[in-house]
Amino acid sequence: MILGIIPARYASSRFPGKPLVDIQGTSMLQRVYEQAKKAKKLSKVTVATDDERIAEHVRSFGGEVIMTEPNHPSGTDRCFECLQKTEGKFTYVINIQGDEPFINPEQIDEIASGCDGTAELITQMIAADSHEVLFDMGEVKIVLNDNKEAMYFSRMVIPFIKGVEQKDWHKHHQYYRHVGLYAYRADILERITRLMPSKLEKAESLEQLRWVEAGYKIKCVETKFDSHCIDTPEDIEKVLKLMGKV
Q: Mean pLDDT for the chain?
């Protein structure tokens, strides 16, 4: 059984109250929830929040919600508390970003297909096939081994292609960038929440490096779906245009 969890906080330095923002008549959080419910491989979907305003909103549209502690350092920690408080026996948890209102249910099913009982952690990647995307330091790149497991995540471009101009690197190596959907095997989720922040994590500001540095294996599943996150109020119009909604 796979539990889909949508962590949702009200507080946000760039966009306070973001989960409740109205997008063409429906809140962002409700849109994410309804998309997640369409995924065929999830046994249950719930919202994990620390704010009663969000919890009340979820109940108003008939969604399931779990109240969690306010001081979690990450969505991963909030997912673990939610798992502990949710009835049922779940083998995997999928952390569904609460700021992607148009996430495709097929994308969730893609990562769920990797939940085979042996994979410890699973995430998604998409081909980086242009110089502009590859050298965008806001995009996280993945270095893979032959088993499609992550060896490293970086905002820099790795590997360096010796003897080739940077503008042509993507033509000489298949680079992938990270798509931030995660699946955790339930027992591994418990273990990684006990880890202290690592040196590599602090250097790159990437939580998943903590798990890699501790020796956990992250399976990477390729997706054809790009992620369209909303981080600021201005992003709403951009995403609506990208999705052909305006």
A: 93
